[in-house]
């Protein structure tokens, strides 16, 4: 299925020039009634004076659920209409607006699909929110090791054949959960996997946080919805234009209990959701349909022209242009690395930061630049000039090359691993702290999380191996950031007693 064509066909039925939720907030502002309700800033009348010039306009529509403004937890008016327009634009049967980022969506999916003790096949390189959701649900994940792109050493969806074999080995699983694309914009064809899941009567769940723009133009990879996924979570704020923390959860078929999903989201989302975030989702959809698709095409043409030029000009740096291992790449992501591994991605991040260009992510060998739907030549020029300047700077320096394949995050592609201790059980057991080297052979009692991209190296309940310990040491020495470790020095670790 071509999502773009499907969306265009549906445009004949719905009026995408409307932004019903945003329009309801504007009407609320225009009525100018005296607020005797929350929030306490009273439409901006009571606020820090020094900062009021920044916040004054948005505070006027920072509303709550009152007459004339719909309820996220029981939508019957503007929110319901806005969500229906979003479902139409993205090719879903039903769409839910989220105000806690894709994290809330992943938690909601886990609590909807899984009950206590249920098994679910999970790609091991998932965001921590997926594992946290499964922990809360009391589910037992069966981990499957991802594929690794050989040039960038980044993790991707495992070959569908490995997943089919896993389904044969675990016929009682409740679903298959993968990340596509990865943080680096690498996308695989999951249509075959979706069909396998459909025949098994289980949902294919796709964390598409970095692919909200997929399927919106022929120049970008197809969306997970167009390839047959049952549940798709998108961070609308990442690659589209809504405000930070605003995301969408799309449902594509009837395998999933939508009534249960709505109840779960009502439990875990705030009863005082931000209407600024909700309104921005409505506007992101309108902008995408009215202008964003055309802007996306124009931006990609500009970026691809410059990418091609850089690929031939760079001497000390490289810019990734795809590989036979990756079905499609996102042209809005540029992956920059040092040739021959002369310096790490963490060092490159600092060099570009000094040049006034802040990368989206850095890892042991790469940094990633993330472009928007609408980038002008002059804005792209700034990034290109910084790349050329650092490339030139590195030519005059000498480095001791780092090993390219010395950091191993995951097992061999397709390897299945069922932890002996469940996430929830591991979280609730007594724990004690030991020296890192002494932890080998023990079961982990905390999440070891290099960040970003937020993929745990170790989850609670996993057995700690020498590989894990070596990787922790190497990442820490290279300057990797670990989120919320029990020991910032990474010299000790909590293990289960």
Rg from alpha-carbon coordinates:
23 Å
Helical/strand content category: alpha+beta
Helix content: 25-40%
Number of strands: 18
- CATH class bucket of the largest domain: Alpha Beta
**Strand residue content:** 5-15%
CATH architecture annotation name of the largest domain: 3-Layer(aba) Sandwich
Q: What is the CATH fold-level name of the largest domain?
A: Aspartate Aminotransferase, domain 2
**How many domains is the backbone divided into?**
2
Quick one: biggest sheet?
Answer: 8 strands, mixed
Shape: globular
Stretches where pLDDT falls below 50 for ≥5 residues?
1-12
The name of the CATH superfamily of the largest domain reads Type I PLP-dependent aspartate aminotransferase-like (Major domain)
Number of helices: 15
How far apart the termini lie comes to 52 Å
Q: In which order are the strands of the major sheet placed?
A: 1-10-9-8-6-2-3-16
- Mean pLDDT metric: 94
What can you tell me about this protein's structure?
The chain folds into 2 domains: 3-290, Type I PLP-dependent aspartate aminotransferase-like (Major domain) (Aspartate Aminotransferase, domain 2, 3-Layer(aba) Sandwich), CATH 3.40.640.10; 419-496, Ornithine Decarboxylase, Chain A, domain 4 (Alpha-Beta Complex). The protein is 37% helix and 14% strand. The chain has helices at 3-10, 20-31, 52-59, 78-90, 101-113, 128-137, 160-169, 191-200, 236-239, 258-268, 275-313, 345-354, 377-395, 423-428, 466-478; strands at 94-98, 119-123, 140-144, 147-148, 155-156, 176-179, 186-187, 204-207, 231-234, 247-251, 317-319, 328-329, 333-338, 361-362, 366-370, 416-417, 431-435, 492-496. It has an 8-stranded mixed beta sheet with strand order 1-10-9-8-6-2-3-16, sandwiched between helices. Strands 11-13-15-14 form a 4-stranded antiparallel beta sheet. It has a two-stranded antiparallel ribbon with strand order 4-5. Strand 2, helix 6 and strand 3 (140-144) form a beta-alpha-beta unit. Helix 2 runs antiparallel to helix 4. The protein starts with a helix and ends with a strand. Residues 1-12 have low confidence and may be disordered.
